[in-house]
Amino acid sequence: MSDTLILVPAGIDTYRQPVVYMREDCHICRAEGFASQTRVRIDLRDRWVIATLNVVAHDGWLAVDNAALSISAWSALGARPGDRARFSHPEPAGSASKVRAKAYGERLNERDFASIIRDTLENRLTDLDLAAFITACAGNRLDGTETVALTRSMQAAGETLDWGGRSVLDKHCVGGLPGNRTTPLVVAIVAATGQLIPKTSSRAITSPAGTADTMEVMAPVTLDERALRRVVEAEGGCVIWGGALNLSPADDHFIRIERSLDFDSTGQLVASVLSKKAAAGSTHVLIDMPVGVTAKVRSAEAAAALSALFLRVGEAIGLRLAVHLSDGTAPVGRGIGPALEAADVLAVLRRRAEAPLDLRARALDLAAHLLDLAPGGVPGEGRARAEALLDSGAAEAKFLAICEAQGGFAEPKLAPHRIELPAPCQGIISAIDNRVIARVAKLAGAPRQKVAGVLLRVQVGDRVSKGQPLYEIHAATPGEAAWAHRYAEQHADALSIAQGPR
Q1: Predicted confidence (pLDDT) per residue in 251-304, tens digit
Q2: Closest Cα partner for 336 from 224, 495, 220, 479?
Q3: Who contacts 166 (Cβ-Cβ below 8 Å, separation ≥6)?
Q4: What's the CATH class of domain 417-498?
Q5: Where's the Pyrimidine nucleoside phosphorylase C-terminal domain (predicted)?
Q6: How far is CA 459 from CA 178, 334, 464, in A?
Q7: Helices 144-156 and 266-279, axial angle in degrees (round to 10)
């Protein structure tokens, strides 16, 4: 069997990218002309996967007649140690020409996007292909018709949840505002009214924490569809990671590339959000759009254009959708990073005196807007309902019940390493740079290290004295703390201070 090798697990996590490791002197590499980064088709019984080849030196850890598979490739094949698989050149990706066409400015239709998504899910497109596609779609290079087509193609590639004709509420924040962790609060309030709100959330792409990262501090979020339905039928809502479900699965591949590029495009942002909302069975969706000079959406003009695109695509795919514009000029709450944001959420739910008032107000605004949007909602009455549920403790009780249904509640932990950043002078905090503060939190280890991040000690408008702590860096290791501290010192103007009289 000259085209086969014995499979062994490499135990290497390459996320969703299947990777195979082969000796440079193995007979298949020689016979087939395989080299590093070659795309290789691997067939095992009734399964196959296309993987990227990494070549191992002949004096390395791998036997000459073995092929080691990354965790994702091993799982995709359902491999067992000692299995012998067949290796061959895959057919070229048919959609590569569509990626090139888009790079040269051509418009794509739904069939073109479906071809790209199919090849993405079958790993026929390389990371360079995907990076080229995402870059070609960046900015405003996807028009409204293309965005609708991409959204439909992304939804069609996966499962769509059916809730039996019931109305299903949902909300999503476009991001770019550190600490804006309103989703767990909105879900708790809305579910406490008896409405259905099965919230599937993402992990961070370019931010210090995504909703799923923060929620995972307090409860398990990796639930399959059966567990999701059990939680929602029992409690009316959930906050889980959508990546464990087959909802718009191509989006996870795009996100992996976007995370490396540190950007996403307007059209792909809308397609990503709304394809998952439609796939989750949502019927009524509220989009939270923070606007500020250091937020993701930086101007009123950009907000108007993005809102119009959301509304157009939402209508085209059958969603009742509204956009909520919010203040994106400064971080929300005190904590930035999964555990610190979880602590803020709990402080609001528990009605603590130290709870961040801005996070509470934002959550109430969003819950009110969503309740007004819901079937039977009376415009203007949602705010009073939301406040009553939060102030009475009903929202807290519902949140804890959801956590228990998802697998059990846990209190957030504190980081073992903390460094304070002092004010260089006295005065009044006039601005906070969202991007710099988010970067400090990420350098400290967030979101990978759940306890890492930034704890703000002041807000815009506060008067400070020289040497007073402005914020704390929280880290799991001294190296990460020092790394974040160096960057913070280089960007000491992240918190602008309007100097007053001495």
Answers
A1: 888 888 887 787 767 899 999 999 999 999 999 999 999 999 888 899 999 999
A2: 495
A3: 196
A4: alpha beta
A5: 428-495
A6: 13, 8, 10
A7: 40
Q: Give the pairing type, strands 66-69 and 4-9.
A: parallel
Q: Domain spans of the chain?
A: 4-88, 169-243+273-406, 417-498
Nearest to 432 by CA among 259, 179, 175: 179
Question: Which two tokens mark 347?
Answer: 């402080």
- Kindly give the interhelix angle for 357-373 and 338-349, rounded to the nearest 10 degrees: 70
Say which residues have a Cβ less than 8 Å from residue 448's Cβ, sequence separation at least 6. Answer: none
Dihedral (CA of 241, 245, 250, 256) sign: positive
Residues 6 or more apart from 432 whose CB is under 8 A from it? 330, 331, 456, 459, 460, 494, 495, 496
Tell which residue, 260, 33, 48, has the closest CA to residue 135: 260
Distance CA 128, CA 143 (A): 23
The CATH number of the domain covering residues in 4-88: 2.40.40.20
CB of 39 closer than 8 Å to CB of 280:
no
DSSP-assigned states of every residue in 264-312: --HHHHHHHHHHHHHHTT-SEEEEEEEE-TTSSB-SHHHHHHHHHHHHH
CA 185 to chain centre: 18
C-alpha to C-alpha distance for 87 and 5, rounded to whole angstroms: 8
- Residues 347/356, Cβ–Cβ less than 8 Å: yes
Q: Which structure tokens are listed for 387? A: 């406040």
pLDDT, tens only, 200-256: 998 887 789 999 999 999 999 999 999 999 999 999 999 999 888 889 899 888 888
Question: Annotated catalytic sites, by residue?
Answer: 264
**169-243+273-406 fold:** Pyrimidine Nucleoside Phosphorylase; Chain A, domain 2 (3.40.1030)
pLDDT profile of the chain (502 residues), mean per 10? 88 89 89 87 95 86 93 95 93 93 96 96 89 91 95 95 96 91 98 96 86 97 96 97 88 84 83 94 96 89 95 97 94 97 98 96 97 90 96 98 98 97 95 95 97 97 96 97 97 88 52
Sign of CA dihedral 455, 361, 338, 399: positive
Torsion on CA atoms 57, 59, 64, 70, rounded to nearest 10 = -50
Q: How far apart are CA 273 and CA 277, in angstroms?
A: 6
pTM across the whole model:
0.87
Helix, strand, coil percentages (3-state) for the chain, rounded to 5, are: 40, 20, 40
In the chain, what is the greatest distance between 2 CA atoms, to the nearest angstrom?
84
User: Contact at 8 Å (CB) between 231 and 402?
Assistant: yes
Strands 463-464, 427-432: pairing is antiparallel
Output phi, psi for 390, to 5 deg: -75, -45
What 3-state class would DSSP assign to 55?
strand
